[in-house]
Recover the amino acids of this structure.
């Protein structure tokens, strides 16, 4: 599976916004803090604004804010906003009924991967990525680390 640079940068930019939700942040600051190419970030932020994940204001007091609380924005929302469908095969949707008849076992594997990917990405919010407590950290949510009480 390939995570696009656009999705990675979008998530990193939104985490930066979520970490400093009290004021608007400008693209230059986000780009510098997250080591994201400025011009690329501008295009990413435009996609995020169109998807309703950020809001913006022009001018010297302007910048970007999250459009919703960090706990209400999932990684699936972000990836969908910048990349569209979470998983495609040869650029085609997995919902094409013809694929299921060509190689049913292969199509079933792709659908299982898609379902698990969606489960993970919808299960992690921006707030989870900010949380430094081991019980609710993103790694613990994904079962990647053992969490002992």
């Amino acid at each position: 599976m390939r995570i696009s640079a656009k999705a990675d940068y979008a998530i990193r930019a939104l985490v930066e916004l979520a970490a400093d939700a009290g004021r608007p942040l400008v693209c230059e600051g986000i780009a510098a803090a997250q080591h994201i190419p400025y011009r690329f970030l501008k295009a990413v932020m435009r996609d995020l604004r169109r998807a309703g994940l950020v809001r913006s204001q022009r001018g010297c007091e302007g910048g970007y804010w999250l459009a919703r609380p960090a706990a209400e924005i999932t990684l699936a929302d972000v990836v969908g906003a910048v990349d569209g469908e979470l998983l495609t095969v040869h650029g085609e949707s997995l919902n094409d009924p013809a694929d299921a008849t060509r190689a049913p076992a292969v199509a079933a594997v792709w659908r299982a991967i898609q379902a698990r990917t969606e489960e993970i990405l919808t299960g992690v919010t921006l707030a989870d990525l900010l949380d430094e407590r081991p019980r609710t950290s993103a790694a613990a949510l994904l079962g990647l680390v053992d969490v002992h009480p």
In short: Helices lie at 5-19, 27-34, 38-50, 75-83, 97-102, 104-122, 126-130, 138-141. The chain is about 55% helix and 10% strand. The longest strand covers residues 54-57. The mean pLDDT is 84.
